[in-house]
Amino acid sequence: MRVTWAAQATGAGLTFRLDPEDEITGKATDEHPVKLAINSCSIGGVPGDAHPDLFAVAAWTVVAPWTRKRVTFDRAISPEVAEALHSGWGIEAGPIGAQARQAGKTLAISYSGGADSVAAATVYPEAPFVHFRRVPHTRVPNRWPHYRSDVLAKLAAETGRELSTVTSDLEFTLAEPRPGYPEHHAVAAGALLLADRLNLGGLGFGYEIGSRWLGGGRYLWRYTPDNPMWSPHGVWGRLFAAAGVHIVLPVGGVSEATTMRLALNSDLKDQVRWCLRGTDGPCRNCGKCLYKELIQAAVERRPLDTPVTADRPIARKYLRKPPYGGQEMIEYGLARVPGIENTLFADALDYFEATEESTSWLDHCYPRAIGEIPAQWRDQAAAFMSAQAGMMTEDEVRRVETWGS
Ligand SMILES: [Zn+2]
User: Fold this and answer.
1) Does the first or last residue of the chain, that is N or C, have fewer Cβ atoms within 10 Å of its Cβ?
2) Dist. CA 289 → ligand 1 center (Å)
3) Which InterPro entries does this chain map to (predicted)?
């Protein structure tokens, strides 16, 4: 893979050319198959003079799935970043010849506006936000016109936080399964290029306990201490650290029920938006809205309020046997939503014996998640979680560590 960055009027343009051994089909780190649509994209709202390692890592979040043996950047990288690419992916990276970037002092939040992201922001009230906003690609038709990135960007601007919005069409480099991030970490491409300007030493993501420790919910159902995407010692954690931007998960120890509670009780509650479809509010009709409604109803101890019926395709998966994505939250909801037996989730009740007691661990914080936050930001997260969620007991810790077994 050969990577070239070019300065553009409003940011930086990335072009990449495949080597003979590369392929246009590949897998993201979470094993999700992806197919390449086009070999160029751009990132707006970023400076043109970032450290070469930042350009390299930002490019890698886009080209990793299609690279087989080597990656050649257009500017020399540090031996540290080259080593992280080699030990993590078995990739020869070069040319080598830059001094490593030193980590800065600031922690920024990669801010989407969803409940998990808002909860991460509440842990660090002084942290600036970097918001990724999707824009159309000039050479790829937009098959996702319902995705209201303008609404999310407007809400981010209303939070009152120091905000950098980066615009990018990088999601259109994916042909299949749909436009999206080639790697989850591509959401950070703009933040990486801003890291020198913002003096970043860390970037906080809203990934919660399900994504970090319970297998991510999508394809796995097991305890994942060595999660390759989000653990500090995983391939991505080491690569980001080599570029002086540590991956930080402020809410990595708590469930989506807890992030929902924290977000809806925060001073950012009016800006929370997890649905990408609605303009004046969540659409209430998509799969994400249904899932989040179950969680919110459980947190608020009220009956389910949804127009979705059991015959809808988005509801059908709950008529089948588990595992489901976000299964820990389904159990939590089944145990707590009054009248759940009269809803589309009724059939799922047959598969679980969830009770409030058996799901109470999802109200507390898994201590190992605090332990892996870099030292300079750890105490603040520990104090916040102790006060707002409480730490798990040993029995509750065992629930996490035997998840799925
Ligand atoms: Zn929706």
Assistant:
1) C
2) 4
3) DUF6395
| Chain segment 132-174, per-residue pLDDT in tens | 999 999 999 887 777 889 999 999 999 999 999 999 999 999 9
- Domain spans of the chain? 2-96, 106-251, 258-351
CATH architecture for the domain at 106-251:
3-Layer(aba) Sandwich (3.40)
How far does the centroid of ligand 1 lie from the alpha carbon of residue 272, in Å?
A: 13
Is the pLDDT assigned to residue 191 strictly greater than 60?
yes
Q: Ligand 1 centroid vs 69 CA: distance in angstroms?
A: 40
**Of 119, 99, 110, 112, nearest to 51 (Cα)?**
99
**Does 32 have pLDDT greater than 60?**
yes
Residue 173 contacts residue 76 (beta carbons within 8 Å): no
pTM of the model: 0.96
Nearest to 354 by CA among 257, 259, 220, 283: 257
Task: State in Å: Cα 281 to ligand 1 middle.
Answer: 9
Token representation of residue 190: 């703009």
> Could you tell me the distance, in angstroms and rounded to a whole number, from the CA of residue 368 to the centre of ligand 1?
33
* Cα-to-chain-centroid distance, residue 55: 20
79 Cα–ligand 1 center, Å: 45
Q: Is 57 helix (H, G, I), strand (E, B) or coil?
A: helix
Whole-angstrom distance, CA of residue 403 vs CA of residue 405? 6
CA–centroid distance, 279 to ligand 1, in Å, is 10
Q: Give dist(CA 47, CA 50) in Å, integer.
A: 7
Q: Rounded to the nearest whole angstrom, what is the distance from the C-alpha of residue 293 to the centroid of ligand 1?
A: 10
pLDDT, position 220: 64
- pLDDT confidence of 279, banded at 50, 70, 90? confident
Ligand 1 center to residue 274 CA distance, Å? 8
One-letter identity of residue 236:
W
CA of 46 to the centre of ligand 1 (A): 31
Question: Could you tell me the distance, in angstroms and rounded to a whole number, from the CA of residue 370 to the centre of ligand 1?
Answer: 32
Note the pLDDT tens digit of each residue in 78-128: 999 999 999 999 999 999 999 999 999 999 999 999 999 999 999 999 999
Taking the centre of ligand 1 as the mean of its atom positions, its distance from the CA of residue 288, in whole angstroms, is: 6
Ligand 1 centroid–CA 151 distance in Å is: 13
Cα(306) to ligand 1 centroid in Å equals 11
